[in-house]
Prior knowledge:
It is a single chain. 35% of the residues lie in helices and 24% in strands. By secondary structure, the chain is an alpha/beta fold. Helix 2 links the parallel strand 2 (32-38) and strand 3 (57-58). It is globular and about 65 Å long. The termini are far apart.
Amino acid sequence: MSTQSKQHALLLIGLGTRGRMWTRVIDSAPNASIAAAVDPHEPTRAEFAAAHPGVPVFATHQEALAAGLSFTAAVLVTPPDGHLEQCRNLFEAGLPILAEKPLTLVMSESVDIIRMAEEHKLALSVGLNFRYLPVHQKYRELLTSEFLGTVGFGEFIYRRHRDGRRPGINKYPLTMEQPMMLEQSIHHLDLIRYCYGREVESIMCRTWNPAWSMYADDANVHALLTLEGDVAINYFGTWSGGWNVPGFEWRTDCEGGVFVQRELFSDLAYAKTTDPELTPIALEEAEAFYDDSAALLRDFLHALDNNLPAPCDGRDHLKTLALCFAGIESSRTGKAIVLKEFYQQNQLEFLL
Length: 352
């Protein structure tokens, strides 16, 4: 006999660019609905209310929590500098949280949030949604199964001219510290950890800002990562490329051939050592940002229903966030950073 899954009443906090995508995701979910929404900007609230008659909309999360409504979880889609207080209030109200990344811009604050979740025995997931794209699910499967033999080394290149002033895009990265590393490269470094199925042992990194950059802080990241098993990955990412046409390639060289991802969200191929050309790998169709977010929400709610570990949990995310900060320290000092030592120096031994 089939059983009907629990219906979840979600508190959606943040209705900006990413919040509108989460609105669409939740509206389409078979076992969830938006029970209330929060945004500080009145026109944004009015736009949401017009599309969702009868759903309460508040200016602050405190007002939503005080309204006497019932929620099963919160989806937190706000800038990271406010997450510490927001998570504290939500956990005190008994709500599990699915939060956008990065969890915070200060490692100690992320540790505090993770500790809160564990003390309250509430789920905490972080929006590492790119893991759920079919291209990355397949890349992970092929790499971890050693389909082409032993993995040796790789190169991950991301080039973009991101106009941070255009309408419909988050503006806070224009003035934040390390915008490329903490808003974009964090996704890429997480995918490297996830798809290779290996933790990073050391990082040598340089971050910098081109003279023409519109960003107040570094919009370029270049890093050499050494993963478990002596796998070396050369990473380069920029938001200040000199051409509007984006560029992307993620190549992995193995004992018996290569894998190449030629598009940011799709197009995976392989070639054995003696093959004259690449062979495309069949992938399921997916809409980036939507289908991957929907899959993350599905797993998050499934974990709540069945008392399972949260997907993309706080500790997992903290390993990626710590890697970003280790890269920033490497750039500042000009030295390679050993992650085990970095954990010990920053009271992160619980991640080892």
